[in-house]
Amino acid sequence: MPKLLFLTGSLRAESSSRAVTRALIEALGDRATCETADIAALPHYNDDIKNDAAVAALRDAIGAADGVVFVTPEYNYSVPGVLKNAIDWASRPAFDSVFKYKRCFIVTVSGGATGGVRAQSHLKYVLAGMMALPHPGKEILVPFAGKKVENGVFRDDDIMAFAGAQMDEFLASLG
């Protein structure tokens, strides 16, 4: 059974990104083992910091996963700083990090009509720089995400069906 690590780009407990993450994990059921990473525990990236437990835990979790699923909001036309910070920590050593050849699946959310398409593009660019392998399937964009969360539960059957089909392709690519 494939093991997936979910990295959510929002720290807010009631964020639409976290609601989408929960919905995806629930939809996967017993087809994958799923974990979520706690990126809030990471210090700001500083190469002078050595042997940080939170950094080691993140790197270990990414390394142990068959695939990494990013679910992130778009902040100011890009990914949130907290997510970029996590990626920067995990990207060391350069060109030989735990992200090298790691298969990644990206879902972006936004409060507006574009669904985070610019954040998705930026994240793919960053992942390519680390030699990670973003899933080449159709992009999963969640527009007007805040309006689709009720009591912490994401509700959009069409997006979940579309995302589910793409997730099935991603799982198949993990071999």
How many β-strand runs? 8
**Which percent bin holds the helix content?**
25-40%
The SSE string, one letter per element, is EHEHEHEHEEEEH
CATH domain class: Alpha Beta
Query: What name goes with the CATH superfamily?
Result: Flavodoxin domain
CATH architecture: 3-Layer(aba) Sandwich
Total number of helices: 5
Query: What count of structural domains?
Result: 1
Categorize the overall geometry: globular
Major β-sheet, in short?
6 strands, parallel
What oligomeric state do these chains adopt? single chain
Quickly give the structural class: alpha/beta
Distance between the termini: 10 Å
Give the uncertain stretches in residue-range form.
none
CATH topology call = Rossmann fold
Protein name: Chromate reductase
GO molecular function, one term: FMN binding
Organism: Citreimonas salinaria
Domain NADPH-dependent FMN reductase-like: 2-144
